[in-house]
Write a structure and sequence with these properties.
Layout: H1 2-23, H2 32-40, H3 42-62, H4 67-98
Length: 99
C-alpha cells in the first residue's frame, strides 16, 4: 500500500513541478505521450497523474499486491524517484543561474 501512496504523491509532485517548469520556460516535457496530453490541456495531465495511482490503491484494497506486480510497482517507484531527482537538478540549476 505504501508504494501506491508514494506513486500518488510522486505523481502529484511531478505534475506540479513539470507544470511550473514548462510554464516558466525552464524545461520541456520529455515524454511524447504526456506532451500531447499537455497540448490538449493541463487538466487532463493532472487527471492522469492522479487517476492511475488511485486505481492502484483501489486494486490494492480488492487484492493485496504481491509477487511480480509488487516488483513492477517498486520499479515504478524507483523510476519516479529518479524523475523527481531530475526535477531537483533542473531546479537547482535554475536557481544557480537566477542568482
Amino acid at each position: 500500500m505504501k508504494i501506491c501512496v508514494f506513486l500518488l504523491l510522486a505523481g502529484l509532485l511531478d505534475a506540479v513541478l513539470t507544470n511550473l517548469g514548462i510554464a516558466n520556460g525552464m524545461i520541456k516535457e520529455g515524454n511524447p505521450i504526456m506532451k500531447q496530453v499537455i497540448e490538449i490541456g493541463w487538466v487532463y495531465f493532472y487527471m492522469i497523474k492522479i487517476i492511475f495511482p488511485l486505481i492502484l490503491i483501489g486494486l490494492f484494497y480488492l487484492q493485496p499486491l504481491k509477487g511480480r506486480i509488487r516488483t513492477l510497482l517498486t520499479a515504478a517507484g524507483v523510476l519516479y524517484f529518479s524523475v523527481l531527482a531530475y526535477h531537483l537538478i533542473w531546479i537547482l540549476h535554475y536557481l544557480n543561474i537566477a542568482s
